[in-house]
Design a protein that fits this description.
- By secondary structure, the chain is of the alpha+beta class.
- The chain has two domains: about 90 residues; about 160 residues, Histidine kinase-like ATPase, C-terminal domain (Heat Shock Protein 90), CATH 3.30.565.10.
- The chain contains eight helices and seven strands.
- Strands 2-4-5-7-6 form a five-stranded mixed sheet. Strands 1-3 form a two-stranded antiparallel sheet.
- α2 packs antiparallel against α3 and α4 runs parallel beside α5.
- The protein starts with a helix and ends with a helix.
């Protein structure tokens, strides 16, 4: 297939997608009332997915800076622009959906060490843009928690992305897992500006903006920590912050260990 034919197929696909989008927007008028709590949770998850898409597009733009076909860069710039618009829309949805949403969770044994290592691996590329190192210490003899795999990933995604977002260039973010009787504790420690006592009292509330400013002009919705708390609470755990101004912040969450009885009770 020639380049021209490929471009024609892409253009046709975009046209069909535009038609489908217009039809979907028309169909929205006939949908029953949507639960604002579900919209809030879905919008936060959508924001995370868009961050991955936008980051990937930016990496490709950098890698293909010298590509001979200018159209390739135009396509990627289009993806980046559309992602930014969708991110703005997801942020607005979060701001307008203020009620608490309790998601349906699926409990299973979750190896938190493996899951967190994967999240760290993904964020190393993002951290490298600010010359930030991610240092994990994830060894624990019994790493299985009784939890929802996706929910734990969402919480870790939020804590690690925040640590990178608020850390100055050239610092270190440390990630720990340790065992307590009946529980596993996961922590993310940054070397950022720290959080004042006044701001700590507002943590985990929906839509609250803190005084800290992202060091790379990143977007902040004010909903990520609230969603993280709701997920941890729903899994029978707790989440908290330890911080002093000028000495960084450590966010930790505790989850119940997985036991054989849990398997028998399912």
């Amino acid at each position: 297939m020639s380049v021209a034919e490929t471009k024609e197929r892409v253009a046709a696909s975009i046209a069909r997608a535009r038609t489908d989008l217009e039809q979907a927007l028309a169909d929205l008028e006939h949908l029953p009332e949507v639960d604002a709590r579900a919209v809030a949770f879905a919008a936060h998850a959508l924001g995370n997915y868009l961050a991955v898409t936008g980051g990937t597009a930016d990496l490709l733009l950098g890698s293909l800076a010298d590509h001979p076909d200018r159209q390739v860069r135009l396509w990627l710039e289009g993806i980046s622009h559309a992602t930014n618009l969708m991110t703005h829309l997801a942020t607005e949805l979060l701001r307008h959906a203020s009620k608490t949403y309790q998601p349906r969770l699926s409990f299973e044994p979750v190896d938190v060490s493996v899951l967190i290592e994967r999240v760290c691996h993904f964020y190393r590329r993002k951290a490298a843009e600010k010359q930030i190192s991610i240092t994990p210490d994830l060894h624990v003899e019994e790493p299985d928690a009784r939890a929802d795999r996706v929910a734990v990933a969402v919480v870790m995604d939020n804590l690690l992305s925040n640590a990178i977002k608020y850390s100055p260039h050239g610092r270190v973010v440390r990630v720990f897992v340790r065992a307590e009787p009946g529980f596993l504790v996961c922590s993310v420690q940054d070397e950022g500006p720290g959080i004042s006592e006044e701001d700590q009292a507002k943590l985990f509330r929906r839509g609250v903006r803190l005084s800290s400013v992202p060091t790379g002009y990143e977007e902040s919705t004010g909903y990520g920590l609230a969603v993280a708390k709701e997920l941890i609470d729903a899994m029978g755990g707790t989440i908290w912050c330890e911080s002093r101004l000028g000495h960084g912040a450590r966010f930790s969450f505790r989850l119940p260990k997985y036991r054989e009885e849990d398997c028998l009770g399912r």
